[in-house]
Structures are given as C-alpha cells and as structure tokens.
Amino acid sequence: MQKLILASNNQGKLAEFQSLFDKANLGMSIIAQGELSITDADETGLSFIENAIIKARHASLASGLPALADDSGLCVPVLDNRPGIYSARYASLDGAGVHGDDDANNAKLLQELMPFRDDKPIIAKFICVLVLVRHANDPLPMIAQGQWAGEILDAPRGNHGFGYDPLFYIPSLAKTSAELDRATKNALSHRGQALDKLIAHLKQGEF
C-alpha cells in the first residue's frame, strides 16, 4: 500500500481523506505529519495555491514520501476577499485572538461587515486547494480546487462544524454549514469538491 503524508495534524481531515481514498480503492494509506514529528511549514505564500504547495513540499522533504496538503479559507468579495488565506488566524492579526480562535475570527468578520449590511445578502465563498506532490521537488504538483458559494449571516447559527461554519448560510438549504450533518456537508463543501477532483485524477493513474 502506498504511503502518503498529510501535511496537517487535523484528525478530522485525516479521517475524511482516508475514508474517501478507501472508497475509491486507491490503495493509499495516509499518515498525519505529526506522527513522524514533522513540524508545520511557514505559510509565506500570498495565495491558497502557494501555501498548499509550500506545505506539501515541506512534508515530503521531511518524510521522503509523497505528500498531500490543503489550504482553505473564506473569501468575502466586499472585503476584497478577506479573510482569505488568513482565515484561521484572522483575529490574531490584530491581537484579538490566537491562531485558530473561531469565536474571535467570527466576531472580527461580523464587525468588519457591519458597514455593508443592507437589504442585500453578503456573498461569500469557501475555497479549498489540494496539492499532491510525488516528491519534494516535484515540478508538476497535482492541484485540485473546490469552491462553495453562500452568504454571511449577521449572527451564528448551528453547533456543528468549525471556523466560519455558523455564519456561512446556504440559501438553497435554508441552513448554515454548522446546521448540516457531516455527510451532507462533505458532499457539498469546498473540500469535498476538491477531493472528488483529486481522486478522479488519481483513478486515471496520474500519480
């Protein structure tokens, strides 16, 4: 079985990726980088694609194995697509929270959107970029991207998910991402879309 390093220590992502890979009969076993004591890469890129490539190359170099990385975030057009690549640490940029402080990040987003509140919905989209490298210096990384369109509410709803899920509203379902069950969210989400595209490439023997 081919071993693959996941450039993350998020056990939820690990379980989700492994489950989808198993269903596709890809014969790949995914290992979180922390199991090999690999530290997080410095995300110095200015785009989701750049940061995903940085993380994948870092994990592959440290492990000597192929590596999979994702970079995800929320983009709000009226805020010039902020928080974007800084989604997980948005509030900490101003010292209002620490990296991964969901409550602080959501509070900052709501505050910044106050001047734009009127009778029109505030459009947003979740972005996920997945990068798979065969080795650290792979000149042709495999890249897959997913987008999930929705709106930003003026108050959180729902108890599931994480990050901006309680604010991200899907009009066709009349629910936020945090009100969806896991199976529904995975089928619709930006990460689910990107994974489907990546798996399609792998099933075609492009790895």
Automatic annotation (TrEMBL):
Obligatory cofactor(s): Mg(2+)
Top-level taxon: Bacteria
Residues of the signal peptide: none
GO molecular function, one term: metal ion binding
Binding site for Mg(2+): 42, 71
Keywords: Hydrolase, Magnesium, Metal-binding, Nucleotide metabolism, Nucleotide-binding
Keyword Transferase: no
InterPro entries membership: dITP/XTP_pyrophosphatase (IPR020922), ITPase-like_fam (IPR029001), RdgB/HAM1 (IPR002637)
One GO cellular component term noted in the UniProt record for this chain: cytosol
Gene3D superfamilies recorded: 3.90.950.10
GO-annotated biological processes: nucleotide metabolic process; purine nucleoside triphosphate catabolic process
Keyword field contains Magnesium: yes
Active-site residues per Swiss-Prot or TrEMBL entry: 71 (proton acceptor)
Cofactor detail note: Binds 1 Mg(2+) ion per subunit.
Catalytic activities: ITP + H2O = IMP + diphosphate + H(+); dITP + H2O = dIMP + diphosphate + H(+); XTP + H2O = XMP + diphosphate + H(+)
CDD domains for the chain: HAM1
This enzyme's EC code(s): 3.6.1.66
Function: Pyrophosphatase that catalyzes the hydrolysis of nucleoside triphosphates to their monophosphate derivatives, with a high preference for the non-canonical purine nucleotides XTP (xanthosine triphosphate), dITP (deoxyinosine triphosphate) and ITP. Seems to function as a house-cleaning enzyme that removes non-canonical purine nucleotides from the nucleotide pool, thus preventing their incorporation into DNA/RNA and avoiding chromosomal lesions.
Assigned protein family: Belongs to the HAM1 NTPase family.
Subunit structure and binding partners: Homodimer.
The protein's name in its UniProt record: dITP/XTP pyrophosphatase
Lineage: Bacteria, Pseudomonadati, Pseudomonadota, Gammaproteobacteria, Moraxellales
Gene: rdgB
